[in-house]
Amino acid sequence: MAYLASILTGVISIYMFLIFIRILLSWFSGADFGGPLVFLYYICDPYLNWWRRFKIFRNSPIDFSPLLALGFLSLLRGIVTIGAIQGISLALILTLVINSLWTVISWVCFFFIAVLVLRLIAFLGNFNIYSPFWHLVDLVSQPVLYRICRILFPSRIVSYVVRIVASIAALLLVTAGLWAAIMFATYLLRFLPV
Question: Of the candidates 146, 78, 69, 68, which has an alpha carbon nearest to the alpha carbon of residue 108?
């Protein structure tokens, strides 16, 4: 059983690596890689397209569905690996699911925190905000700023700097609160009798 689990873990790891390469190649849309790399499209795209159908992860200029796809494969690899060593239990599966969700959610939160910090730096500094990079930062940060400020300041008009700082603080508080909830849930799962 352990031998089969190690083979399955290896296959999942290789597939995750291929998906990661495919994601990196998608960043260079103008380049023609052709030839031997075309097999990545046939191997990875059906799986990635299944995750892309969830519009909630593609609601901004950046597509977060590959992150969720890799998170699911990581969860599956963890279940196979730990299950072969300890045996599979409901507590183990729930713990791995919660930790995998936390990994995806925390990555997204920290990504948006970094984007908002960049936006704050661009606003306070004397940068060429008309460059393509700052335009992309604006495209990503504006929907987040709008949604958070609609909650924090529903009937007040506040300055742009206050909105950015408040949004960063809110995301940090949400991330810390979720981390505490995940740690507490993981602690409680130890006492699950199954």
Answer: 68
Q: For residue 6, what is the enclosing H or E element?
A: helix 2-26
Residue keyed to tokens 């609601």: 59
Q: Buried b / exposed e across 173-186, counting CB within 10 Å, b at 16+? A: eebeeeeeebeeee
pLDDT band, very low/low/confident/very high, at 178 (cuts 50, 70, 90) = very high
Q: Is the pLDDT of residue 171 over 80?
A: yes
φ/ψ of residue 44, rounded to 5:
-95, -35
* Phi, psi (rounded to 5 degrees) for 25: -65, -30
Check whether 172 has a pLDDT greater than 80: yes
Is the pTM higher than 0.85? no
Please report, for the chain, the start and end positions of each structural domain, with discontinuous segments joined by +: 1-87, 89-194
